[in-house]
Write a structure and sequence with these properties.
Length: 323
């Protein structure tokens, strides 16, 4: 029994050493992401205090044994509020990226599959949305929909749809040239069945891009909360904590530094995890050869319409494989 346990421990250590040597970026990113997600999931147990308890007698206390990262202007524990703020960021990012991923995948794959006028119309609509800077589009959508967390999720999700649709279109165009898709046509499969069973399962590399979209979603949510368009006080959010802390940088710098570092490590973790997954799943990236067709060389969340059409193919052109 002890020999089996020892052997299992040795194999686990050997696997960890191998993963660290080959995929350091992936391991570091995964550790940071797990830490952020665990903080958001178990915030009620990890936080030493309630994020809403006000104690004016302890306001602006520097870091000490009772409050490891100090207190804010209302005497609330900064560590507890930072941990609970991760819950808002992860929740908004999860819903927003899911909306963008599903919506963009459907639009991009349908546009590439049917081609022609439908492809042109859908891609021109995506380029129209893509032409607006992301934060400006988010502010406009929040002004129309209203300022709350649900609308922030919807606004950020809409921002992600054009980017994912471009990637899905490019990937679908590549899949459409494969022989198994032509075989599906030959045996008389319906369009919906071909899309669902022959095309969509082979563009799963969009999941890699979704990891980096998570990082951008966290930044957008924090930006909206910083501007007062996301989570409203006393609800803790990294953005509104930064906004309230900027007025105390000389007197109590920990009010801005602590949530800022938390957001930094969260965004860094999702970015590193996305890069690591891409290196693992795309051997061309790992060997340092020419960049892949999708994803990686298209700045899908830059908020600019000046994306190379050579990579994606101009809708309706000869590069857009219509049936």
């Amino acid at each position: 029994m002890s020999a089996n346990l020892a052997g299992g421990g040795i194999r686990a250590v050997a696997f960890a050493a191998f993963a660290w040597r080959r995929h350091r970026v992936l391991v570091i990113g995964a550790v940071l992401v797990v830490a952020v997600v665990a903080s958001a999931t178990f915030a009620g147990r990890l936080a030493p205090y309630s994020p809403y308890d006000v104690n004016i007698a302890d306001k602006l206390r520097p870091p000490n044994a009772a409050h490891w990262f100090g207190t804010d202007e209302y005497g609330r524990d900064v560590l507890s509020r930072t941990i609970h703020a991760a819950r808002i960021s992860i929740k908004v990012a999860t819903v927003a990226v899911s909306v963008g991923l599903v919506g963009g995948t459907v639009i991009g794959s349908v546009a590439a599959y049917f081609g022609g006028a439908l492809d042109v119309a859908l891609m021109r609509l995506m380029e129209l949305l893509f032409s607006f800077p992301a934060i400006l589009l988010a502010i406009v959508l929040m002004a129309v929909l209203g300022t709350n967390i649900l609308n922030a999720m919807a606004a950020i999700g809409i921002i992600f749809i054009p980017g994912f649709s471009r990637l899905a279109r490019a990937a679908t165009q590549g899949v459409m040239r494969q022989q198994y898709v032509e075989a599906a046509y030959a045996i008389g499969m319906s369009d919906l069945r071909i899309l669902g069973r022959a095309v969509l399962p082979h563009i799963a590399t969009l999941i890699v891009e979704a990891m980096q979209a998570f990082a951008y979603a966290v930044i957008l949510e924090s930006s909206l909360s910083f501007l007062g368009l996301g989570a409203h006080p006393p609800e803790p959010s990294w953005g509104n904590m930064l906004n309230s802390g900027r007025g105390f940088m000389d007197q109590a710098p920990w009010l801005g530094v602590v949530p800022g570092l938390a957001m930094f490590f969260g965004v860094l973790g999702f970015n590193l995890l996305g890069d690591g997954l891409r290196d693992v799943l795309d051997p061309r990236m790992r060997r340092g050869l020419a960049g892949p067709t999708m994803p990686g060389n298209v700045p899908i969340f830059s908020g600019s319409a000046l994306t190379a059409e050579k990579t994606l193919g101009d809708p309706g052109s000869a590069e857009s494989p219509a049936r």
